[in-house]
Amino acid sequence: MYVTITNSMNLLLSLHFLAATQPSVALAQECRNTLKATYTSPIAAGGWTYRLIANGLTRPRSILFDNQGALLVVDANSGIKHLKLTDDGGTCLSVAEKRTIIDSPELNHGIALSPDGKTLYASTADKVYSWAYNGSAAIVGDRNRTLISNMSNTDHTTRTLLLSSKSPGILLVSRGSASNIDEAATRQSTGHSQLRAFDIGSLGENSGPLNFPTEGRMLGWGLRNSVGVAEEPVTGGVWTVENSADQLRRNNVDIHTDNPAEELNFHGHLSDSNKDQGGNYGYPGCFAVWSTEGFPDKGNMTTGDQFSLNPSRTLNDTTCNSAYVPPRLSFQAHTAPLDIKFTPDGSEAFVTFHGSCEWCQSSIVHI
What we know:
Elements: E1 2-6, E2 11-17, H1 25-28, E3 48-55, E4 60-65, E5 71-75, E6 79-87, E7 93-103, E8 111-113, E9 119-123, E10 128-134, E11 139-140, E12 145-149, E13 159-163, E14 170-175, E15 194-199, E16 210-211, E17 217-221, E18 226-231, E19 237-242, E20 249-250, E21 253-254, E22 262-269, E23 279-280, E24 286-288, E25 306-308, H2 317-323, E26 329-331, E27 337-342, E28 349-353, E29 363-366
Parallel strand pairs: 12-16, 17-23
Antiparallel strand pairs: 1-2, 2-3, 4-5, 5-6, 6-7, 8-9, 9-10, 10-11, 10-12, 13-14, 14-15, 15-17, 18-19, 19-22, 20-21, 22-26, 24-25, 27-28, 28-29
Keywords: Signal
Signal peptide: 1-28
Organism: Colletotrichum nymphaeae SA-01
């Protein structure tokens, strides 16, 4: 069973893959959950079914299960909700009890939980906090602790958190750009458009917060807005999905409808440093091609190749493809990937797309 979230409809959905051998009677069983959607319902791919399990939320952004099986929801501009679930099989989930465990309008996206289930992490636009957490009682400690600070932006204010399962105590934090084309992202010292790993496990009891732009381990920069971050569960490889730029022009020709591509990027493994780690992925000077139809001065470029907006002697299509890290996979322009999840054996990944333009549709893609 997988769970996904949409932030525009104020709801949570449970999704379930139906194996070919599953009895059809399972679909017909009665479910105590009788919630009905008040909007045009999503369309499930063949072999999948889903059910609405919660509504009445403000702006649900991120979710995770705690060690007791409860669902924790970052409700942006509100706080963190604790949903105790009743599972009657398949997609038949219902909320037995809902409570706010952290009342904080600052919290807007990131959430993580320690392996022992006793420490909860969440992010604002500027900081990462931790709380003592008691899953059995569904409560947090009276005081929080600031672990990481100095991440404030004028745009792209979400800070995705991922606590590594392969490297205990390492917290990954993704920070996007401050604007559509953010020239500050060309300087590492600003901390803009970067993915960093922080060893929070080694922090002493009285240690002050870590400074995002100057501390932590650089996993990648030149990443416009990598909202989805995942660790492949078998090898420990770190992957992100990136939301690329809008309203681009190349050599004064409008290319924004079908370019640039959104990206799936690889950042190596936390267990070692290698050529796949700490590289520059090109933004804001280089972008990936999605469609070459009507693309000016395309030469031999194909989907996934990197291009410069206004080629010059110092930054052109050749340098974009030789000096910067290319995406491992390119997605349709403006589909806005928001998350990536792997199956336990690491053989498949699922990417959710929000869609940032009126001609794009929200979807989940299976890789």
